[in-house]
Amino acid sequence: MVDCILGVSNPRQWHSEHLTLNNDHYSSWMVLLGGARLITDVADEIGVGMHFNPFVSWNDKMFKYGVVCMHDLVHVLLDNLDIENVNSVNLRAAMSAALLLLPSKFTEEELYAKICSLSYMGDLRMLFAEDRNKVKKLVQGQFELFRSMYKPFIEEYETKELLRRSLSGNTQPIISQDGGLLAARSLVSSLPQMVRSQMGMKLGEKKVLCDSVRVIQEIVIGSKDEAAKCMQTILQRKVMVSSARQAVSGLLALMP
């Protein structure tokens, strides 16, 4: 199945016009009871602002497409004008989160699989409709893309002596990571602010002198495992809420 995201200026108007052309793409009850208004209301009020039409056949291919307001897409860019730097921060945060959850030794593919799985941690849809091999397929199908994105951060963490790569008989090197407390603190410091804030509320914080000038709040971490479990709980809850809303919205869109 091919997934597509369509950004449109006015979702309600777009759905209204699209219904006249392809009303078979939509759930019949939504078409009968409210049409474009109901479709957008369900997406905005119950879902996460995007309506999906799955299982659409075209040119012997199966498609699933989502429709979202272009304003929302542009809003992300306007709020993050330095998008390259924002992307770098996000990639570093994802890698740090994955490393907290990984054992002392792992392969490059296992690293990318753990990074990819962060998006599905706590996702209710993975228990039912979603393909449980989705992460494995994504990583194996886009391995070189993952490598190109995360190679700079692997090298950065090697320089910081958080990681070490060693060649083996396989094409992928074995990666070893420092499981000590200082390494765990370094990884936690790269997590998103929202996650760090909630971890601080759960584990506690202390004031630490930084650069002999600044005083910062540091999360009190007893061990890498403690930090990993706390972070995992926070991520699972966040993903669960979002996925539950999207699942209900998707279920309503699928009902005949």
UniProtKB/TrEMBL annotation:
Signal peptide: none annotated. It is found in: Mitochondrion inner membrane. It comes from the Eukaryota. InterPro entries: Tam41. Keywords: Lipid biosynthesis, Lipid metabolism, Magnesium, Membrane, Mitochondrion, Mitochondrion inner membrane, Nucleotidyltransferase, Phospholipid biosynthesis, Phospholipid metabolism, Transferase. GO terms for molecular function: phosphatidate cytidylyltransferase activity. Pathway: Lipid metabolism; Phospholipid metabolism; CDP-diacylglycerol biosynthesis; CDP-diacylglycerol from sn-glycerol 3-phosphate: step 3/3. GO terms for cellular component: mitochondrial inner membrane. GO terms for biological process: cardiolipin biosynthetic process; CDP-diacylglycerol biosynthetic process. Its cofactor is Mg(2+). Its EC number is 2.7.7.41. It is a peripheral membrane protein. Belongs to the TAM41 family. This is Phosphatidate cytidylyltransferase, mitochondrial. It comes from Prunus armeniaca (Apricot). The lineage of its organism: Eukaryota, Viridiplantae, Streptophyta, Embryophyta, Tracheophyta.
